[in-house]
Structures are given as C-alpha cells and as structure tokens.
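FAQ

Q: What does a record look like?
A: Structure on top, sequence underneath. For example:
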C-alpha cells in the first residue's frame, strides 16, 4: 500500500493528441467533421481517454520486489473521472498510488487497485483521475483483506437503445502500442503464442478508448467535453481486424454499455458505465 511511486512529468504535443485519437479509430471516416476535430490540428480537441497514456511509468508488476508473478497478470477494470478537459498540448504531472489490495483466496488470485492523478504541471489543476484494477492470478491466499462486494453495473434487460459498430484494422495494435505500452504481446506472434493466443491481441485500453468513442458519438453528439466518467471491465481480448460492437442503454445523463466482437460472439467489455453532462 505504501509503494514509493515517483511523480512522472510529461510534455505532449498536438501530434501526440492526434496520434492517440487515430490509434483508437477516430478519423476512420476522414470527411466526418465530428471526428476531424480530434485528428486535425486546426482547433484541435484532445480525446479524454488519452489521460490513460499520459504520465506512465514502469508498472509495479515489472518489479520483482512487488512479489507479483507478472506472467499471470491481467488488466481487470479501468475507470476515468474527468475534472477538466485535457489541453490539446501541454505538460502534465502524474501521481500514482495503490488504493486497495484484495485477497481473493488461495488459488483465486489477488486484486491490486491503482489510482493515477493527472495534474496540469503549470497550474496544479487536477485534470483527471484514473483507476485500474490489476488481477494477479497467482498471488492469492496471503491473508489480506477479502474486499467488499461491489454492485455490478449490468445493463437493463431490454434491447439496447443504440449499437455503435467500430472496426479495428490489421495495424491497430501496432499503432496503439506507440502511445505508451510496448508489451510484445501486442506485436510479436511468438510471444502471443507463448501466452496462448493465436495472434497478437489488441490492448485492452485501446478497446476501452474505442468504447468511449462510441459513447461520445451516441450520447454526447461528439462533444467529448460532456463526458465526466467512464469505466468498464475487461472480459476477453480483441484481435486486430475485428469489429467492436458497443451496445448502449441511455438513462438521463448516464449510460450503461457492453461490447462484443460479433465475429466470435465474444463479449469483450462488460459492466460499462458512463456519465455525461
């Protein structure tokens, strides 16, 4: 819980903001002016989920002193709370901390819950907070806190109000990894095979960002400044070239969602929740 994280200061440019948006599929329709605002430098707007690739440092799972078996780690959940829009370019300071460690029991793994604050380095304004849950499959049974059950954000038992289909490309994982995550699992077929996959998989945070694109399109009229909260659980991987179908249920200023890869009839994101103004 007292792991000594150091603040990470990062300066990013408009090119970084444009590349991030392109890497989650925005601009797939290049003549769509709604998408163009996120991928064209004139009056550029940063897409809010870019916060997830800012201020990243070496993961705690990479340090053997953590006691975590990195080969058995998966990204379980990811959330984002937005306090102020990210500038299209600027310098931010990221501050990580562990907020919870949950022991699911011997043979059942453990959960490490992380929080990252993204702060404007010049003004000290808090821009966003990210929460991520790391599922350490080989580290349960150490006698820690068993955690409190949380109510799943399941969608209503009715037909979704809207379904947004977003295609990925053969190069999607190769593009996205240039944002922050160079894990060879997303590029090297041999590494993917060792992990039990037939091919390199797409980053979970890429499919997460694509789902946010679907929410901003369907619920915010492409005005990303209206998005204030976004979270979901990762259930299965996506492979490049597959289409992500995001099912959305709207209710006032909130939405529940989940995402499927129809080619494999596989649910890839679940317990999705978004809030907007």
């Amino acid at each position: 819980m007292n792991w000594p994280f150091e603040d990470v200061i990062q300066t990013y440019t408009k090119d970084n903001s444009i590349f991030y948006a392109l890497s989650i599929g925005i601009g797939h329709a290049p003549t769509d002016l709604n998408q163009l605002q996120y991928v064209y430098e004139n009056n550029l707007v940063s897409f809010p989920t870019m916060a997830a690739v800012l201020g990243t440092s070496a993961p705690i799972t990479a340090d053997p002193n953590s006691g975590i078996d990195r080969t058995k780690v998966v990204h379980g959940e990811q959330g984002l709370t937005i306090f102020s829009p990210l500038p299209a370019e600027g310098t931010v300071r990221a501050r990580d901390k562990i907020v919870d460690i949950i022991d699911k029991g011997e043979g059942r793994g453990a959960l490490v819950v992380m929080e990252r604050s993204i702060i404007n380095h010049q003004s000290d304004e808090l821009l966003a907070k990210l929460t991520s849950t790391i599922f350490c499959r080989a580290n349960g049974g150490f006698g820690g806190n068993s955690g409190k059950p949380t109510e799943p954000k399941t969608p209503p038992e009715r037909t979704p109000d809207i379904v947004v289909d977003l295609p990925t490309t053969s190069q999607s994982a190769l593009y996205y990894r240039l944002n922050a995550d160079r894990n060879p699992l997303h590029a090297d077929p041999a590494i993917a095979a060792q992990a039990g996959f037939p091919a390199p998989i797409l980053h979970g945070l890429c499919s997460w960002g694509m789902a946010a694109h679907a929410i901003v399109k369907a619920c915010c009229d492409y005005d990303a400044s209206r998005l204030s909260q976004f979270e979901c659980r990762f259930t299965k991987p996506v492979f490049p070239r597959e289409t992500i179908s995001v099912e959305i249920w709207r209710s006032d200023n909130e939405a529940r969602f989940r995402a499927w890869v129809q080619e494999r009839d596989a649910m890839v994101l679940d317990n999705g929740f978004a809030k907007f103004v």
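Q: Is there anything notable about this one?
A: The mean pLDDT is 94.
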